[in-house]
Amino acid sequence: MAVITADSDQVGALQAATQDRSAPVEIIVPELVHHVLPGPEFVQGYRAGVEDLSRRLGEDTTEEAGPVFDDSAEATWGLQAVGWGPEVPAAAGIRVAVLDTGMDLEHPDFAAREITAKSFVEGETAQDGHGHGTHCVGSACGSVSEEGRRYGVASEAEIYAGKVLGDEGSGSDAGILAGINWAVANQCAVISMSLGADVREQHPPYVVAGRRALERGSLIIAAAGNNADRPGDPGFVGTPANSPAIMAVGAVDSALAIARFSARSFPGVGGQVDLAGPGVDVFSSWPMPKRYLSISGTSMATPHAAGVAAVWAGVTGHRGLELWATLDKESRRLELLSVDVGAGLVQVRS
After folding, report:
1. How far is CA 175 from the centre of its chain?
2. DSSP character for 333?
3. Which residues does residue 161 pair with via DSSP β-bridges, in sequence order?
């Protein structure tokens, strides 16, 4: 697999070669541009307004999909929802790659951590000039805030922060694929990618990259997408999460209801949501001086799943497909459609 620059004549020749069974060229596809996947602002008053209107109409909508979680002084609601507790192993020695907008390498919460950072964006360092990457690293591998609140799942994992999206929040296939190659070469057990394009069709480079990563013991976990506008429009899983060998993660809120922006499965191989994670009003790290921020999206659910995967990788020794199967088996079944949450909510312990 290669990313090349070619003029129209060369592209035509390469496309013609794909028709020749004896030629070494299998397929030629144009490069895509991918973006960070933050969700819409979560309006706290929306549910209260709907419930008030329903009561006036004589309807009862107060029943929740599950127990309500709230951020506490000890831990975020997301950590509580995935089953975290002080006795849960912290994934020491497990390498987790977060391919995003980089990371605030001077963030005080990570001062004592083992971090390897590299930029795949021309002209930019691995320092996060956007914020999205730092937030995702925090949910997957952060530890505690300055007030003592735990917000990261795998707090002792080795962090590999790959900058594949620029400071404006977008990046091309070339950088993302190079980041995947770097993470696999460094034997990262888990690769978290909260990025994508709203393209329903599978993109062949990620079909190949996801399969080869699994074969080499690296599980790629990607955001399903935020193109839904529920209840009317359930959206669809975009690329790269719709690749069969890449785990797609949807988002639930603190009542364990599906997030209104979270994309739904569509028919066909690879188009399904595989698991769900906490993705609404998620507290995590943010570049200094702000230090912390709460935001929403399947982007936030994905690093929760990645952190959980890192813990299970440490506990079981499983990698690749075995690790995928472990996450499926240990997930919490929800009273929601499987097309929205797959096997259920990721859980860090049985």
Report:
1. 17
2. P
3. 98, 117
pLDDT band of 38, cuts 50, 70, 90: low
Looking at residue 249, its amino acid is V
- 149-160 average pLDDT score: 98
For position 67, what pLDDT does the model report? 59
- Sheet containing strand 170-172, edge to edge, reads 170-172, 33-36, 195-196
Q: How many CB atoms lie within 10 A of CB 121?
A: 24
Smallest Cα–Cα separation from 312: which of 298, 293, 331, 337?
Answer: 331
What is the pLDDT of the chain when averaged over all its residues?
A: 90
Catalytic residue positions, numbered: 100, 132, 299
Helices (H) and strands (E) in the chain, counts: 9, 12
3-state secondary structure of 178: helix
Tell me the HSE value of 26 on the side-chain side, using a 13 A CA sphere.
5
What distance in Å separates the CA atoms of residue 147 and residue 185, rounded to the nearest whole number?
A: 37
C-alpha 206/C-alpha 239 separation (Å) is 8
Distances (CA, A) of 55 to 52, 191, 308, 342: 5, 45, 39, 32
Angle of helix 204-215 relative to helix 320-330, nearest 10 degrees? 90
Task: Find out if CATH 3.40.30.10 is the number for domain 42-341.
Answer: no
| Cβ atoms of residues 112 and 36 within 8 Å | no
Beta carbons of 285 and 260 less than 8 angstroms apart: no
DSSP, collapsed to helix, strand or coil, labels residue 262 as coil
pLDDT at 346: 98
The CA distances from residue 176 to 126, 202, 205, 340, in Å, are 14, 16, 10, 26
Which residue has tokens 């979680």? Answer: 69
Average pLDDT over residues 17-29: 76
| Cα 85 to the center of its chain, rounded Å | 22
Strand, coil or helix: what is 157?
coil
Both tokens of 119, joined, read 């930029």
Domain boundaries, the chain: 42-341
| % of residues, the chain, pLDDT over 70 | 91
Three-state DSSP class for residue 140: helix
User: Which has the closest alpha carbon to 233: 6, 8, 19, 40?
Assistant: 40
pTM recorded for the entire structure? 0.89
